[in-house]
Amino acid sequence: METNKCQLSIVIPVFNGSNEINICLDSIYSQGMSPEQFEVICVDDCSSDSTVEVIEDYANRMQPGNLKIIRHNVNKRQGGGRNTGIEKAIGTYILFLDHDDYFKVGSLLQLVRIAEINTGVDIVMFDFEAFTNGIISQKSHYLHNDTKEMKGREFLQSQEIPWVPWCYLYRRDFLNEHCLRFEENIRFEDADFVMKCTILAQRMFFVPLIVVGHTYSDSQTTAVGNNVGKIIDLFRLSDRIKKIAMEEMLVDKECSNAILAHHLFQHKYDIMRYLWRIPFSQMVYILRHYRAYVPNNNKWLTFSARYPLIFAIVLQLLKPLFPLMRKIYLSSK
After folding, report:
1. Does position 332 have pLDDT exceeding 70, yes or no?
2. DSSP bridge partners of 41
3. Which of 65, 90, 205, 210 could cysteine-pair with 149, CB 3.0–4.6 Å?
4. pTM for the whole thing?
5. Which of 244, 276, 150 is nearest to 201 (CA)?
């Protein structure tokens, strides 16, 4: 049986990325990999700018031969773009990259060699550097993690994990065997995908290698502010994580507790940071439909779940004080 020559499929969901995509692609094609070793799949999610033309021009100029452009007929957000990339990928492993991010020079060759040495590994987690306002603001995040191989459930309980898909190398067959896909047409589709993948991984390890340069900017979807739709989507994410934890309770209680701890922390954080900003009727809607796990050892989270209307009234009355309360709460973490 002939081995797969394409070792790596790099999936890039793109929406209105005409200004950044050239830098992103340059970071891939300057890695020193031979064209048959990898493929690049750009999935355009109904951009309204010249993104597709810019990618096509790049392909015409560089003639890489392994750059694919797929266009969605309807907008499916990043989750849908990544799913399309998974379906079309042929590489042994899959990497996800955002169109405004980049790969560190030489990092892909190192990552592929690590995967080759550890044949059949399901997931390899790596590190990243943060790029803020044109300056590298943090060069590493997880270098204190253990590097030994372990099952995903153990990994989830013992390691510090980034809840973003672009910090991992995934074996393509692993994703397909377990039908692991992103939620589509929503914001904040990352964390629950990473959790599901980690839980199911039989072989997983962390490598202290900085692979991705991630760009932070106020225009990203992560800049929630007082956008009601984004805030609701955050609580929907929290609810999906809660459901994962409850399902896992039947399989591995310790792993379930680790996921629940993340759910409760995130739910409390979202209330303190965002919920108080929005109109009263929206507060009540969120508190009634997306509740923290009950029972738990946090009294005010339990109260918010059992008595959402009263909690919303109190939140509304305390609204003028919340900027200060939030500041105190965040500084105490």
Report:
1. no
2. 11, 68
3. 205
4. 0.91
5. 150
